[in-house]
Amino acid sequence: xxxxxxxxxxxxxxxxxxxxxxxxxxxxxxxxxxxxxxxxxxxxxxxxxxxxxxxxxxxxxxxxxxxxxxxxxxxxxxxxxxxxxxxxxxxxxxxxxxxxxxxxxxxxxxxxxxxxxxxxxxxxxxxxxxxxxxxxxxxxxxxxxxxxxxxxxxxxxxxxxxxxxxxxxxxxxxxxxxxxxxxxxxxxxxxxxxxxxxxxxxxxxxxxxxxxxxxxxxxxxxxxxxxxxxxxxxxxxxxxxxxxxxxxxxxxxxxxxxxxxxxxxxxxxxxxxxxxxxxxxxxxxxxxxxxxxxxxxxxxxxxxxxxxxxxxxxxxxxxxxxxxxxxxxxxxxxxxxxxxxxxxxxxxxxxxxxxxxxxxxxxxxxxxxxxxxxxxxxxxxxxxxxxxxxxxxxxxxxxxxxxxxxxxxxxxxxxxxxxxxxxxxxxxxxxxxxxxxxxxxxxxxxxxxxxxxxxxxxxxxxxxxxxxxxxxxxxxxxxxxxxxxxxxxxxxxxxxxxxxxxxxxxxxxxxxxxxxxxxxxxxxxxxxxxxxxxxxxxxxxxxxxxxxxxxxxxxxxxxxxxxxxxxxxxxxxxxxxxxxxxxxxxxxxxxxxxxxxxxxxxxxxxxxxxxxxxxxxxxxxxxxxxxxxxxxxxxxxxxxxxxxxxxxxxxxxxxxxxxxxxxxxxxxxxxxxxxxxxxxxxxxxxxxxxxxxxxxxxxxxxxxxxxxxxxxxxxxxxxxxxxxxxxxxxxxxxxxxxxxxxxxxxxxxxxxxxxxxxxxxxxxxxxxxxxxxxxxxxxxxxxxxxxxxxxxxxxxxxxxxxxxxxxxxxxxxxxxxxxxxxxxxxxxxxxxxxxxxxxxxxxxxxxxxxxxxxxxxxxxxxxxxxxxxxxxxxxxxxxxxxxxxxxxxxxxxxxxxxxxxxxxxxxxxxxxxxxxxxxxxxxxxxxxxxxxxxxxxxxxxxxxxxxxxxxxxxxxxx
Length: 958
Hints:
The chain is mainly alpha-helical. 59% of the residues lie in helices and 5% in strands. Strands 1, 2, 3, 4 and 5 form a five-stranded mixed β-sheet that branches. The longest helix is centred in the last third of the chain and has 31 residues, at 645-675. The protein starts with 14 loop residues before the first helix and ends in an 8-residue tail after the last helix. The mean pLDDT is 91.
């Protein structure tokens, strides 16, 4: 009997292809006596076989199946196929080929009934879903049979419950009887450990057994053989699939959903349906999940988080082009997902109190929402019609080659095939109708929760629901500049799963849902998204809790942008945040944005905490914590331009002075504890180098020396140490306090090599010995270093004043016969030979760099000292009569402050992000980095010429 209701779906796209299919089919029909049936049906078959290579191939390979379809009512043929599938018995090898042949017959039947307008959408998706049920049940029976045959399963054969305690839920479209033509099937597998253990041999590992069952079942269904495959199987719609086994124990699953389950998982369970295995266990499990899925009461934040499922998709403005070519009718703008999200988000919000809104089927749920007055009837009708059309379009795309794709081909020939299967012979008209359809859905989608905060990005959609990466989101991340978008998406998804402390609470995850798009957009705008995201990930994962920090970032976008700028441009500061996330707390301190010259009480706090610490190491750690916070503060204010290079230099130096002032008494107390007190002695700590001149950067070390005075016979009252021994031990303790690594890090590198007799003398010198050394042994370079000497701490103010007076007297003492300028030039030339500058960004040693300016400044100071003139430790003050050198030093100090705040090493800015180069240009008083490079060359040339004029080249022996 010919199916007279079987209608042509559209024009014959490729008559040649249709005829090539007809020829072998005609021969088979002639041989078996059904040629008249084929000829009568051919007007309807030709458009199908002329556009779908896959369907033509199915018919050619199994003409007898085509005959049965043509001569049997489709509902009866479907019932027969399902009955055959349910009747299959034996193990995996017994059912493998029959299952594949039945799937091929089901595919051909479904396509022809769909394209021939015999079945509506519900009938098509219902047929596919019912066969998926039967195939999955058959696969579980077969795998259980094999396990039973091997003695690994002890229960009696039971077709309805092959393994007591093990069950599977159909998820997604399969669960809602909405399966698409070439869909995979989403199965979530769970088990009751006690029930499964009861049917296994003693000592068997239950988890290993059920995992093997899952893997064998999936392989049986999806393995490709000469007969094809049955279904691709996706087992990932389970709790946290990247860190859980394929089959999850029910108690663990319930604990997961109750503690860290996400709203998209709630939405997924709207469509969940018991499909295989132990139905009683499956129904009990779903019943236990009802409070998770359908919440009777929701606070405002929970509602916002549900709405985020929708708001992550970027809704384009009216008039934005939505092209048919390459359009993803499922996941793209205006696609099926938007209608599903439109429906499911409202179900989650409203369904807790209204059971009528809990339908797993999208069209039924839309109708229920409209009936309850939550969606206007006209909009529900419009979206329902669009949904049906999009689903049919999706099926026709997949019918070309049986591929799980939802993308309209870019190739006009292949897109023309889809158009023909859709009843359209004019490709331009077809494209226009598709574009109108997508635009209409996207417009309605944008109206839902209109006015609420967007959770997409100007770059596009940012969807992190589900268990696989959203293609539109990957495109967005690519546009943002990420080199590995999939890794970024996986990381964000893992945070949504609560795998780090910051997102372990429900509130933390709700906040992160809002923060994620801002994070990614801001990171993209730094110009260095990979580095910024990588460093932020280290910081974020290190937070012990995340609610306060995330709320802070959301409420203070400027602060958030500042932190992300640090991540992008400043690895030194980013590492501080990564290793010590608590450093962010310093940004919450009212002192953080206070001008650095103001007395905030930090240094007093440092001294108090060091003094009050129970032991030496505790004091070191207390000082390190406060030091780290202040270094972070100085670094941020330097990079944001709140302070200039002079202020930064003074701030860094003031901090170093405070650290010494806090730790020197602690070092002294520790030395007294070990060796006893020394009566009558005094100590002074003298800073040299950039510490002495108050010109430190974030990367500066501390050039120090210590001097003391004590009665000749003084000794400690404990171990009898002489004064020299006592103060050397005290100095060593101080060096350790400043430079040792502890749990809180390190403060400074300490360099004692500028002290008198550094190569062979003690680490601490009697003040009189210092004066003698400079009178009898010191070279010119040592006098030059002394021009920047400054007492930074002493246990006796009078001794501090006496020390400064002694150092000034040393500088002013005449040195007959010494050619200071010539000595300085020889030393600079030797340095240039042995330590030449390392390229144009060696701001210290390059020709015309800071060392040239500092040599001249120190020679000027020695000349002024000899003539009784004023003395200063400041390089710029000493260069008041050398404008070219002063300009070069000031420019390079400004650049050094930025680079020191951002980096531990000395990078080449050419290889750094544009944002950092812009910071350097601004610090250097230029509009662009190119202008800065030119200015640096010009200024250095002038500085070197001035250097040569002041310190003329020397030819020894002339």
